[in-house]
Amino acid sequence: MKIIDARVIVSCPGRNFVTLKIVTDQGIYGIGDATLNGREKAVVSYLEDYLIPVLIGRDPQRIEDIWQYIYRGAYWRRGPIGMTALAAIDVALWDIKAKAANMPLYQLLGGRSRDRILSYTHANGRDLDSTLEAVRKAKEQGYKAIRVQCGIPGIAKTYGVAKGDHNYEPADADLPSEESWSTEKYLNYIPEVFAAVRKEFGSELHLLHDVHHRLTPIEAARLGKDLEPFRLFWMEDAVPAENQEAFKLIRQHTTTPLAVGEVFNSIHDCRELIQNQWIDYIRSTIVHAGGITHVRRIADFAALYHVRTGFHGATDLSPVCMGAALHFDYWVPNFGIQEHMPHSPQMEEIFTRAYRFEDGHFTPGETPGHGVDINEELAKKYPYKRASLPVNRLEDGTLWHW
Ligand code: CS2
Ligand code: MG
């Protein structure tokens, strides 16, 4: 089998997505997600100018060799742009291999380890009442696990709170919009939010919260302790994790489970966090961490230290990533939970998918491959339009983590 063509499809059905299609001489093709929110065109160039030219003519069945060729051959290793481009190729090749074997991808990984895949979605509101209403709605949709984000009194625009009735989409302007942040107002208010949610919904519901990198370690330790009575499933991205050892201090003070890693792109970003058990869930996902080939290594390493997977799955990760992730979730022994944010109606028409949602859980489907495809003609209807993630400042103007 030979790769005879590979092309990048950029489309903006409600938000930008980058999709890679690899075509073989036997008529089988594979699809990979190459979307990196706010940096889409950088990944397009990396694929078109550097990686696709070295793919043509190769045997697509040699997934590992192609992975090593691109990772080691790049010289400039790691980083979100390169590892997202590599991930798209990797997922497309796994899709081809599973189609050639005429089996759903999870079978190729080792078969299913569970009957269904627990998923969580977002509930958010500008104030407590609208947040509680959003939790009610997510619960009525069948979710057993819900991420709760609430507007903070005194902060104009809080992370994770959608505009109007749309799903939360952070890339909200051509060039970065600026947000203002107060850690004090946030830390004083969030425990009240979870007290109110637990009061109305009891202890059954899995509750998650995304701090989104906003705190220092001791502030995160304080929040973790304050949230302990509300038994969160996890507190996510408490602090920026370039310095992985920062989580040691958080861990010493609280039993609130910790999740991190959606911005990681390699095992080296999380090795210390995992081997010291400073976290409970690793969020690095297939589209940004080098594809199935690399994320499998991360998951197997995490299993040695009782760390479970909790893949990122926001609206800026395409159905292609979701499809591949669900096959991985079906197989991986140390599965934790899968994030899922619904996509726009236009997306539904462009991407066909085999995965199904029922009663708070997903199943990936039995279609050979990862079960997701793209309608290239329809995708052309939605041309790319630059959209940037916001920038965040403290109230005194200090540039802060968004
Ligand atoms: C968030 C994301 O879903 C999450 O956990 O952290 O919404 C994140 O803000 C976006 O993916 C950034 O593009
Ligand atoms: Mg997050």
UniProtKB/TrEMBL annotation:
Give the SUPFAM superfamilies listed for this entry.
Enolase C-terminal domain-like, Enolase N-terminal domain-like
Give the InterPro entries listed for this entry.
D-mannonate_dehydratase-like, DgoD-like, Enolase-like_C_sf, Enolase-like_N, Enolase_C-like, Mandel_Rmase/mucon_lact_enz_CS, Mandelate_racemase_C, Mandelate_racemase_N_dom
Instruction: List each copy of the Mandelate racemase/muconate lactonizing enzyme C-terminal domain by range.
Output: 128-257
Q: A GO molecular-function term, please?
A: mannonate dehydratase activity
Superkingdom as given in the UniProt entry: Bacteria
User: Which Gene3D superfamilies does the UniProt entry name for this protein?
Assistant: Enolase-like C-terminal domain, Enolase-like, N-terminal domain
A Gene Ontology annotation in the biological process aspect, one of them, is: amino acid catabolic process
**Listed name of the protein:** D-galactonate dehydratase family protein
The record lists the organism as: Cellvibrio polysaccharolyticus
